[in-house]
Amino acid sequence: SSWGSVVNRDELRFRITRAMSPKIAGHLALRGIRTEGAIDDDVLPLRDRKYAAASAGLEWRWSRQYALVGSYNYTWQEFEGEPADATSNGVSLSVVYEPRRGN
After folding, report:
1. 56 closest CA partner among 13, 17, 19, 95
2. Element holding 5 (H helix, E strand)
3. Around Cβ 73, how many Cβ atoms within 10 Å?
4. Which pLDDT tens digit goes with each residue over 53-72?
5. pTM for this structure?
6. Are 35 and 64 contacting, i.e. CB atoms less than 8 angstroms apart?
7. How far apart are CA 69 and CA 53, in angstroms?
């Protein structure tokens, strides 16, 4: 870890992208992480953590170089010893420019 502690980390990632037409594509992504301290360390105690994230979005490409991308993101996190878990929701709308795409 960034603290210099020994940890066990399990991570699972999944992402699927589907082209619905030549100009429209969608995606769905899931990610889960579980982090646990591998040894009991009194100097640098590490709290166990569970983390999950999900994302869903659409992309509309109006030319080879430009696209409009919209997505929804959800994040959940829980630390050992905390009274409650934390969640976050986000919506984004982006214009993407890729100058070398299709050349």
Report:
1. 17
2. none
3. 15
4. 999 999 999 998 999 999 99
5. 0.74
6. no
7. 19
